[in-house]
DNA sequence: CGGCAAGTGTAGACGTGGCTACACTTTCCG
DNA sequence: CGGAAAGTGTAGCCACGTCTACACTTGCCG
């Protein structure tokens, strides 16, 4: 059963916990992107319609509608047939958090020398895996070095 | 159809491309983690068995076996019944790339002040979204500031 | 004000990545 | 050397996130 302790690897439970948390982060990523995008659309144009959301995400409108249904199920959004999508207070809170985190991640990447478009691109994925501790460190770093 | 240009948002095609790339990165993340882990297990103990892989990832052995089957389908791994898992040359190349990228991401996070365990934790997810351009910037930053 | 284009919604398919349950093979030790 | 424990494999379930196809509603404009 391989009971020899393996030197350079983390312990099994530690590694399992890390992978597990990464999986969780992944599963919330989509809701976070939708919330952020819906908030942006509402702020800049006053409405967030499924087709606009779909076009901006690069998916079919059917996919967008199904995901919006999940957001509603989870208490993050509301919508009535043919009437556009809105955020609940919880949805707005999520969007605000996600938006500020997104900005911080882009700023940190830029600060360590990542080119603008690469920073924007990579931040779209990275943001969902940045913990509060890491976010705080980014903040401190930017305050000091900025 | 909302043909008013929206000021603060990226253009629709730009944003769609970014989200699309993030989705692609996400879909390769699992294969990357498996390849890296299999290489580590082979290096440190000479064998990589489905149950060990499953325990370290924190999933059931059935899940691990199914994913290993996908790796085999994609030409990254080989295995014969009851005999453990090995990497193809392509699999080893992927593992090497992933491992060095993982290390760089952890080092960068540490360098900007992220606590050790948070860096290890967050890197597990972040690594899959770091482009070559960003990686190169991390490298330069560490060479300079390290 | 009527009709058509655009938008919306629903149904059904598919691949992935989880799980449990159960059957089979290997290994190891008494 | 035989049997129990550990490991392996398979089947079948589920939720998610994607798609295409088709039907229905809205809203605008001629
Ligand atoms: Mn994102
Ligand atoms: Mn974002
Ligand atoms: Mn990882
Ligand atoms: Mn890794």
Describe the structure.
- The structure is a homodimer of 146-residue chains.
- Chain A has 146 residues and is mainly alpha-helical.
- The first copy, chain A, has a single domain, classed as Winged helix-like DNA-binding domain superfamily/Winged helix DNA-binding domain (Arc Repressor Mutant, subunit A, Orthogonal Bundle), CATH 1.10.10.10.
- Chain A has 6 helices and 2 strands; from the N terminus they run H-H-H-E-E-H-H-H.
- Chain A has a two-stranded antiparallel ribbon.
- Chain A is globular, with a radius of gyration of 19 Å.
- Chain A starts with 11 loop residues before the first helix and ends with a helix.
- The N terminus of chain A is likely disordered.
- The interface between A and B is large, with 55 and 55 residues.
- The structure holds manganese (II) ion (4 copies).
- Chain A binds a DNA duplex (30 and 30 nucleotides) through helix 1 and helix 3.
Features:
homodimer, 146 residues, mainly alpha, Arc Repressor Mutant, subunit A, two-stranded antiparallel ribbon, 6 helices, 2 strands, 71% helix, disordered N terminus, binds manganese (II) ion, DNA-binding
The second-level CATH architecture of chain A is Orthogonal Bundle
Distance between the termini of chain A: 52 Å
Number of DSSP-assigned strands of chain A: 2
The CATH topology of chain A is given as: Arc Repressor Mutant, subunit A
Q: Tally the helices of chain A.
A: 6
Radius of gyration of chain A: 19 Å
User: What hetero molecules are in the model?
Assistant: manganese (II) ion
The total tally of domains of chain A equals: 1
CATH H-level superfamily title of chain A: Winged helix-like DNA-binding domain superfamily/Winged helix DNA-binding domain
Which structural class best describes the helix and strand composition of chain A? mainly alpha
Please mark out the parts of chain A with pLDDT under 50 across 5 or more consecutive residues, or reply none. 1-6
Helix content of chain A: over 70%
Oligomeric grouping of the chains: homodimer
């Amino acid at each position: 059963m391989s009971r020899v302790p393996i030197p350079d690897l983390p312990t099994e439970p530690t590694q399992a916990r890390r992978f597990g948390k990464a999986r969780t982060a992944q599963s919330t990523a989509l809701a976070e992107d939708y919330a952020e995008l819906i908030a942006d659309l509402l702020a800049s144009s006053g409405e967030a319609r499924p087709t606009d959301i779909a076009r901006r995400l690069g998916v079919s409108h059917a996919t967008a509608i199904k995901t919006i249904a999940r957001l509603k199920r989870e208490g993050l959004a509301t919508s009535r047939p043919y009437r556009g999508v809105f955020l609940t207070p919880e949805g707005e809170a999520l969007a605000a958090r996600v938006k500020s985190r997104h900005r911080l991640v882009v700023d940190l990447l830029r600060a360590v020398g990542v080119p603008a478009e690469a920073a924007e691109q990579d931040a779209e994925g990275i943001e969902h895996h940045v913990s509060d501790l890491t976010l705080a460190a980014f903040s401190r770093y930017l305050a000091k070095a900025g």
